[in-house]
Design a protein that fits this description.
The complex is a heterodimer. By secondary structure, chain A is mainly α. In chain A, 77% of the residues lie in helices and 1% in strands. Chain A contains 13 helices and 2 strands; from the N terminus they run αααααααααααββαα. Chain A has a two-stranded antiparallel sheet. In chain A, helix 3 packs antiparallel against helix 12, helix 6 crosses helix 7 (159-183) and helix 7 (159-183) packs antiparallel against helix 8 (187-217). By secondary structure, chain B is mostly helical. The chains are: A mainly alpha, B mainly alpha.
Chain lengths: 342, 434
Amino acid sequence: MVLQNVWFFLWGLLWAVYFLTDGFDLGLGTLLPFIAKTEEEKRIVYNAMGPLWDGNEVWLLTAGGVTFAAFPLVYAVMFSSLYSALMLILFALIVRGVSFEFRGKVDSPGWKRIWDTTLFLGSLLPAILFGAAFANIFRGIPIDQQGVYHGTLFTLLNPYGLLGGVLFLLLFLVHGAIWLAVRSEGVIHERAGAAARKLWPVLLVVAVVFLIATKFATNLYANYLAHPTLFAVILLTVAALLGTRVFLAKEQYWKAWFSSAVTIVGATFFGVIGLFPNMFPSSLNPAYSLTAHNASSSPLTLKIMLIVVLMFVPVVLIYQIWAYHLFKGKVTEEDLAYEEAY
Amino acid sequence: MDVLFLSRLQFAAATMFHFLFVPLTLGLSILVAVMETKYVRTGDEVYLKMTKFWGKLFLINFAVGIVTGITLEFQFGTNWSRYSAFVGDVFGSLLAIEATAAFFLESTLIGVWIFGWKRLSRKAHATVMWFVAGASNLSALWILIANSWMQHPVGYVVRNGRAELNDFAAVVFQSWALLEFSHVVSAAFILSAFFVMGISAYHLLRKQHVEFFTKSFRIALVFGLVFSIFEVVEGHLHGAEVAEKQPAKLAAMESRWDTTTHAPKYLFAIPDEKNERNAIEILPIPGALSLLATHSLSGEVKGLKDFPRDERPPVLINYAAFNTMVALGFYFALVTIIGWFKRNRLADSPGYLKLMLFSIPLPYLAIELGWVLAEVGRQPWIVYGVMRTSDAVSPIATVQVFTTFVAFILVYGLLGAVGYYLIFKNARRGPVTA
């Protein structure tokens, strides 16, 4: 029981870290056509996330892998139920991933436009679909006792699901714009800061609407009402969101980025805490829901995986932080002059 | 076409496409690391140029390998949910370990390598490439341990309606995993060596950048020679293990119908599956199959008739895949041995260079056939002897799988075309003279 609960929160944490890291490059990829006008500006956008996006995306694989290892039934039912949505995300991530490498390899504007488009779509779609998928999980998914899904891709596109998609997109857009402000200078730096400031009020409104809609569309608040101290998580998240705006106003972009990172982690945990112990609730009958307690691996596997995660994730964090530290500076002309640069 | 058939087709397409790119990542990462280390040690600029040129080809290939790998991890859930639910306790943990212990390192450090030329010391930069190479191969190790468990499940009990882990060490350290890992990784190294030798041969034939490509060729030649010879010996051991642990696969890949001792090896046969015999079999080597499979001329080799029809893998495809792969394996050893004697006069051996240029695709063919044999030869099982492939598929709609299968073909087709176009273009252009 304890082991299963620990794993439940580790599972939530891995998704949160995925959204926090890949979130900024998904957001930045979506912003590309709006924020970068010239070829040089576009290259700054690419190279601002260039060294880091690949490592960020591995958090998705880890979240997926850990779901498979610790909660095989959740992995099986979640990914087969959300088949079409997940496949769309995967195809989007595929064309997005190669855009970085392919774009600069042929010197033709038409060629570059193709890969700018795939980067844009490949960033926009996952941002929305992840949000929609999680909002639908909060709401409950029409699965029966055998874990068979009774719906289509369009079942997921209900108002609350779409609202979740928009919320994630906005979170990532703000996160990405701030990252660009951190890593650029001159006109594009100004533009990135301004974009973050302009998007922020929209995010605030959507976040508030989402919190209210959650009351009516889901059962997430039950855990909070049972343990009112948990409301601190929501307060902290809202405080981080407000803090983001304060730092944006002061043009302290690193602080704004961390604040936005806390917002994303907080928003993920808002849902994860509300779900507990459900992982994939059934909207047909609560008895069919997959929970941390009825869908987990054997105690031995959970123990081994806990050792693995406690051993390796800190190491991963150390070298990822080292990589972030290495590339924390502004993207310079010298960086763009690299033969290997994107 | 039903969900099962489409899911199998889709998984085959996705893995086989993924594996066009993975082997080159495994081997070329090491060769680039060797080149960069030589640069750090000697300060010779030609090694820096080599690192950059081969590094660029490496990166294009790497990108396609990475993005096509991500889908695979999720396809177990999307298309094989019953399999995932049944084996997740064992199999899922191996995939999760692969991501945390290896893939993270590879993906994070590749970014550091690409962008870190001026931010790191030369030595540190070369070290990063060694870590990328090590992590890629470590990643392969975990994936192959997972596949080995499907081939020869150990260290588990069936409890609560699923396979539950009861001996982690047995899963990780089983001899099948060691043999499969050595086999696949050696094949990947051979492929990478032939890739470098073939492209070098192209330029040497045109007498351009002679020093550059002679050096590249020779580094790859040593690598290719060692692993081609190793693979011949290792392949034999792997085959003997198959004979012992997957006798139905062995019978299919050798097209043997009757259980016999002193089994001969026919150099050519055409199986006739309907009548449970070979339509043609010629050139027998007496006792050779018994000797190879059991290390004794009088050893007993099981025939397909010993297995119920619904537990036999298809024969023709496995027989053809196996024998072509083996013939290619001997060919790789032969031409790298010839290369060794020509190593000091490569530029004056146009016939050999041409042969090597046209040999580039052959290791790709061999490695894909090896996977066909491994996976089709295991049928009708998804986990050998434990779970049938037909019991493993997700309860999803045919139209969904049909749609994604078509999308896979289109997207991967385009991706492959663009990826190979860029590799081809950059390979032909040669090192940038700046």
